[in-house]
Task: structure prediction
Amino acid sequence: MDAVQFRSPQSPPDSFAGSLREGLSKAPKEIPCKYFYDSEGSALFEAICALPEYYQTRTEVALLRRHAGEIAALIGDGAEIVEFGAGALRKIRILLDALPAAQAYLPIDISGNYLREVVRLLAVDYPALALHPLVADFTLPLTLPARTGARRAGFFPGSTIGNFRPQDALCLLRRMREQLQGGGLLIGVDLVKDPAILHAAYNDAAGVTGAFNKNLLARANRELAAGFDLDGFAHYAPFNVKAQRIEMYLVSLKRQSALIDGEMIEFAAGEAVHTEDSHKYTIDGFREMAARAGFRPRAVWTDDARLFSIHWLES
Ligand SMILES: C[S@@+](CC[C@H](N)C(=O)[O-])C[C@H]1O[C@@H](n2cnc3c(N)ncnc32)[C@H](O)[C@@H]1O
Result:
């Protein structure tokens, strides 16, 4: 029998295969969290949003509903709304219902097939709205279509900003400010709180967050025939008190290997792969960062228990 033939790595570094090979060749190993989101990952994230432990979505939705009128007045009539990491397009409906004269909606998401599916559903419910979906990675330079509305407003809910290290979050906010061409940004930010609440939110009893985390491996099996044994990895999501962030890992439960983009990657028993951070902010801490990014932080809304915050940042 011929010796096993390994393909030489050919995928570009910003592809799933290339990023996975590069991240799993590092010490310690890591996988960028944006790769959670193929259609399966997006559906799993939606399931997380409905979990009893995951206070973020229901708190943010309640805040949006309660303050929709005020928010609509700040955004103004005839605006074009750009949503970064749009997901299931649920939260935008609250804004659109309060902004009947919105000119256009540009949802941006990396999860292409999922975005196409949810945009079709939105188009049925909002037939008069001009829809310009964009399948793209918002961390890369992005050319948005020319502005059609009186002004542009950004929408970045879900505390996705928390998935970036503070220095990267600052750069991302700066870039968004440029893309908004003078328009404001409405952004949802998860707050520091009792670590037990945070720990429960990322370690749900039903194991949905674990399945979401393991979707990185399942996706590698589907797209790259990587041969991961999903039961050979454990979901691990501790709260790092010093850095004020949940850290998510996949921990190898045994010595094993997987073939990624032509390279055999070895995992030691107990070796951790870092898959996501979710930083938590104080209201003042986030407003300071937004100001450093060139925004003027204006209104901020929070719930009575101060679990979550929504900020209106002006350019
Ligand atoms: C935490 S979910 C939030 C979804 C939705 N905005 C919400 O509030 O429920 C993050 C969303 O951002 C998208 N996403 C993550 N990284 C991205 C990137 N680099 N570029 C574009 N979209 C990204 C994911 O596909 C997902 O829909």
